[in-house]
Design brief:
- The complex is a heterodimer of chains A (about 450) and B (about 170).
- Chain A is mainly alpha-helical.
- Chain A is built from 16 helices and no strands.
- Chain A starts with a helix and ends in a 23-residue tail after the last helix.
- Chain B is α+β, with helices and mostly antiparallel strands and about 170 residues long.
- Helix content of chain B is about 45%, strand content about 10%.
- Chain B contains 4 helices and 4 strands; from the N terminus they run E-H-E-H-H-E-H-E.
- In chain B, strands 2-3-1-4 form a 4-stranded antiparallel sheet, covered by helices on one side.
- In chain B, helix 1 runs antiparallel to helix 4 and helix 2 runs antiparallel to helix 3.
- The longest helix of chain B has 27 residues.
- The radius of gyration of chain B is 25 Å and the shape is rod-shaped.
- Chain B starts with a strand and ends with a strand.
- The chains are: A mainly alpha (about 450), B alpha+beta (about 170).
- The interface between A and B is large, with 60 and 71 residues.
Chain lengths: ~450, ~170
């Protein structure tokens, strides 16, 4: 009395939860080692003070704030893209949404760590929280850093719930297939889900409302992160374009991260029957659109600065265009514009491999973009007394590497504990069986569906 | 708990069973239907569809908005500090806090109303683990003893039905 396709979906997607091979431990060993190294570096920095980092006057924002902005940007992969695809009811979203939503939650958690890592005394981080201190002084709501606190926490809370709600029916399936302690844990997480029409309607309505609410929140988060810069009188920061420019960049890097995560999941968890080349093609097209949009914003920002011809602005402008930061700047342009345009713009390169190469380029390029917004401007402000250079030190480099390790580790652990593809949405979407998806051929490089 | 229920491989058979139970005198509220995915292609999938969730979300948003306004107003006026020549209560920056708390209020109200109205976290009723493998369950919980035979007959009528009594 069971549905063969449903059983197959359950078997395929519950397999990683129920079986653990040595490969899993090998996979998590390296990122776990990176995370440990990062923690050791952070504690070393706390013990010896910020003197061991490269952060000093006049450049107080270096790798840490670069990482903060970068990871908050990456977080736009998930909830925002998933919410948009849910609202437009894009059928191809079904295997993609959860992979994306998970990125949001973990990237936000990692990004939100950096304001704390960036504190000399992180145990006083609660000073940022909106509470009356013993002298009844509340935080200054006119500071963009306090806006960050509200925006990031709203987005994190919304994203966690947006991720958790559609997992509830899948926890119920896991509950029915697990035994022992696992069964008890999944039963608790499933909240007694049974699958009545009432429960399905309420869940779908809740997801619709959440999708509508979360899109403006996601946009606001990166706009507010951009306000950290554009509210400050620093050359090339105080510009009205930063809000949309940051949001576009965030979505751009987010799509790239999502493509990388999907390619890794497809390979490692053998999800070829669910993550088809057509999903990569569709996201590759989105990556192409965002590359063009990113190029448009950069052109705008540069051209307006060039025509304004302010001495302080032009000094920063030339530092990035043809002086000390030029190698990084042109690497960024190649990674963020030339590479995705060449690979995603030509159909024959819009394969899974092509998407992965373009995405690696975009992730590198977007990290460089954040770095190039922060450091050259802070090192060359309006008056010569405030000129300075920034040299990242090992502690910052190790902590930066550790964040990538943390992302991989958290993602691997999550996909070990929770079905990484929404099973009920696949079942609801009449997911085409694998035999209808032919392998890629020269004629049909994307393995078009035989429907 | 006593119950009689049938397991069906597809939505058409489940729809027939639901129709037969209705013909046997049951209302929609007395029929239990469980499935592993939303069944919106079938009439029984639309039972109990109306909800107040949109309004509750709006209400949550309004509460969040009021909280954001109160928080900024009360704190800034109770300890007035001149910041960069801005007014003590500056609308533009405070709108950001108000906006975030409005959306947070709407999100939390939505989740609360989902948990409350979908009966999540409460004790479980009729259930069969085969549902998670794709079977559709149609049944009656705590049926009247003299009606069990009729319900069983109704549930058995669609082809391929497997009827159980517990």
């Amino acid at each position: 009395m069971t549905h063969p396709a449903h059983q197959q979906i359950n078997r395929d997607l519950l397999r990683p939860l129920m079986q653990t091979s040595w490969r899993f431990y090998a996979l998590v060993a390296l990122p776990a080692a990176l995370v440990v190294a990062g923690l050791v570096s952070w504690f070393t920095q706390m013990f010896f003070g910020f003197g061991i980092s490269g952060i000093r006057w006049p450049i107080f924002w270096g790798f840490y704030v670069t990482n903060f902005v970068f990871w908050i940007g990456i977080s736009h992969a998930g909830t925002l893209i998933s919410a948009i695809l849910r609202l437009v009811n894009a059928g191809w979203r079904r295997p993609v949404t959860r992979c994306a939503e998970v990125i949001t939650v973990f990237a936000l958690m990692i990004g939100a760590m950096f304001p704390i890592i960036h504190l000399g005394r992180p145990w006083l981080a609660f000073w940022l929280f909106p509470y009356p201190s013993e002298r009844l002084i509340w935080p200054n709501f006119r500071s963009p850093l306090v806006w960050d606190f509200f925006a990031i926490n709203t987005y994190l809370t919304g994203s966690l719930l947006f991720l958790y709600l559609p997992i509830i029916p899948d926890f119920a399936v896991a509950r029915d297939h697990a035994t022992g302690l696992r069964r008890r844990i999944y039963a608790a997480l499933a909240l007694g889900w049974r699958g009545t029409p009432r429960q399905w309607h309420r869940l779908e309505t809740a997801m619709q409302i959440m999708a509508i609410a979360i899109i403006p929140v996601a946009v606001s988060v990166h706009t507010i992160v951009s306000f950290d810069f554009s509210m400050a009188p620093v050359p090339m920061w105080q510009t009205t374009i930063f809000g949309p420019y940051f949001v576009a960049g965030a979505i751009f890097s987010g799509i790239a991260a999502l493509l990388l995560a999907m390619a890794a999941l497809r390979k490692i968890l053998h999800l070829e029957a669910y993550l088809h080349p057509v999903h990569f093609e569709n996201l590759g097209k989105l990556l192409l659109v965002m590359a063009l949009l990113w190029g448009y914003f950069v052109f705008n920002e540069r051209l307006v600065t060039y025509y304004g011809n302010g001495p302080a602005e032009m000094a920063v402008f030339w530092r990035t265009q043809r002086e000390s930061f030029a190698p990084l700047y042109w690497t960024m342009v190649i990674c963020n514009f030339v590479l995705p345009l060449s690979l995603m713009g030509i159909k024959r390169f819009r394969t899974i491999t092509g998407c992965v190469i373009a995405s690696i380029g975009v992730v590198i390029g977007m990290w460089l973009e954040r770095f190039l917004i922060i450091v050259p401007a802070l090192g060359h402000k309006y008056l010569p007394y405030s000129y300075g250079i920034y040299r990242p030190q090992p502690v910052e480099i190790i902590i930066t590497a550790a964040t990538f390790g943390a992302m991989i580790l958290l993602y691997a652990l999550f996909s070990k504990l929770v079905p990484i593809i929404s099973m009920w949405e696949l079942k609801a979407g009449d997911h085409p069986p694998a035999d209808l998806i032919p392998p890629a051929t020269e004629e049909h490089p994307l393995g078009e569906l035989r429907l | 708990m006593k119950a009689v229920y049938g397991l069906y491989a597809d939505g058409h058979a489940a729809q027939q069973a639901v129709n037969r139970l209705r013909a046997a005198g049951l209302g929609d509220a007395q029929i239990t239907i469980l499935s592993a995915q939303p069944m919106e292609d079938f009439e029984f999938g639309h039972i109990d569809k109306r909800s107040w969730m949109w309004w509750i979300a709006c209400g949550g948003g309004l509460i969040g908005m009021a909280t954001g306004f109160s928080l900024t107003w009360l704190t800034e006026t109770s300890w007035p500090i001149n910041v960069g020549g801005l007014p003590i209560y500056a609308w533009w920056p405070n709108l950001i806090i108000i906006f975030e708390l409005t959306m947070l209020g709407a999100i939390l109200a939505t989740v609360t109303s989902l948990v409350a109205s979908a009966g999540l976290g409460r004790s479980r009723g009729l259930y069969d683990p085969e549902v998670s493998d794709g079977a559709i369950l149609v049944g009656v919980e705590d049926p009247a003893a003299d009606k069990v035979g009729d319900f069983r007959q109704a549930l058995e009528s669609p082809s391929g039905a497997r009827v159980k009594t517990i």
